[in-house]
Amino acid sequence: MTRRTSRLLWVIVALGIAARVTTWWFKGGFHYPDEIFQQVEPAHYLRTGVAWLPWEFVRGVRSWVLPGIYAALLEVLSWAGVTGLPAFRLLTLQNAVLTIIMVPAGYRIGVALWPPGDPDTESAGLSVALFIALLPALVYYTPHTLIGTPCMVALTWGYAHWLEARRSDAPDARSLLLCGLFFGIAGALRFTCGFHMLVPLADLLLRYRSRALRPLLAGAALPVSIVAVVDLLTWGWPFHATVLHLRHNLFEGPADVTRPWFYYMTDSLWGRFGPLAPLTCLVLVSGLRRTWLLALTLLVPTVVLSAVPLKQDRFLMYNWPLLAGALGIGWLVIARWLRGRTSVVGGVAAAAIVVAILGSNLRGTSELPWTTRRGMFHAQAFVGAQDDATGLLFHDRSHLNGGYLVFDRTVPQAPFAGELLANHLFNYASLTEQGDDTQRLLRMGWVEVSRFDDIVVLRRAR
């Protein structure tokens, strides 16, 4: 890597951090309840002994590995007096900033995909790094405590080492070892990540046969062993959570909302590409033509997960780093063709294509939930900070809020129910502004004390 390329890569890293912090700033609440009740709420339980634990942590369907890490971070933050909603916000900011390590992995993916010895090899690395740093659909998932966020980071580095390993005629033990390590982290945290690494692993095993197997297994051994030991200590036997999660998804039918088989293609991909989806697809195809293996790596999990009734955008978040890689390579191919026609106009046109793709993707990504339950989170935090609060009634179900982590108070909170109004222990309520329950309480003499977005905080008349 030349000094100029190194400086440009640092600029891209800075832009990526800025994009992630900006995204974090404008987001609030959650993307999906699991990031609260399967990650940080159990972490709050480990630290304080108080929480709403979902059924997954009663039956042993989830591992305690990530909640344990979050519990340690929450404990450290508490030493500085940071708890509740501010602590949760700092956790999401930390996740957003830490995902910047995907950018150097993107550079290596670009270099590995470009023909060796070509003068534009480093430009390919920078191009892919730029899309991984700034692609809105990828950046969207970074300020979250979803289990998929660290998995996406690990898979990206696994892809980088896979592509580097396969460039050599002889097996590169170090690249294979690191490939196994990062794929092992992703697979140990979420077994469905295995669909996203099927093609890379099959490629390495077919290419190097048994010579690839040993370093791959050695690399995966550490993260897989950690999950096995944690499950043994918490649930009684190794891989307890993985086995029960697999059984639940395959045989017990978790889907309460089903979508058509083409949902991922029409909504999660084409829809996220935004109004300029045809242009994005043109650039994408130009990049995928460089390697059919990349296209296959994207296709396999998309097809497999399309056969599952329960479909959500977050299940394919792991595709976005490879899509960013294909876009980076495709853009460079088109930029070279444009520069060959006329250097000045071609350069401007190439820059305009990048801006158009990113802007269109931002428009498509804006349709995802950005501030779901943000008002409820702030209402819970507000009530938890009141000295006279002895109980809270809130709108909707118990898993659609910030839990006891955000409430940051060891007093009862429960979904609003008319029969609970007779219990004067519940002296605060956080309800929707236009809801019938809100009007009912106002007629009963409850007083509005604050409001956040569409949530009104009421206090029982003294």
Quick summary of this structure?
With 462 residues, this protein is mainly α. The protein has helices at 3-26, 34-48, 56-59, 65-79, 84-98, 102-113, 121-134, 136-139, 148-165, 173-189, 194-208, 210-235, 240-252, 263-273, 277-288, 292-306, 320-341, 343-365, 374-384, 403-407, 436-443, and strands at residues 392-394, 413-415, 428-432, 447-452, 455-459.
Please, how many helices?
Answer: 21
Q: Report the average pLDDT across residues.
A: 91
Overall helicity = 55-70%
Hey, roughly how much beta strand do the residues contain? under 5%
What gyration radius follows from the Cα positions, in whole Å? Answer: 24 Å
What oligomeric state is this?
Answer: single chain
Shape: globular
Number of domains: 2
Strand order of the largest sheet: 2-1-3-5-4
The number of strands is 5
Largest sheet: 5 strands, mixed
* Helix and strand element order: HHHHHHHHHHHHHHHHHHHEHEEHEE
Rounded to the nearest angstrom, the distance between the terminal CA atoms is 70 Å
- What structural category arises from helix and sheet content? mainly alpha
Low-confidence stretches: none
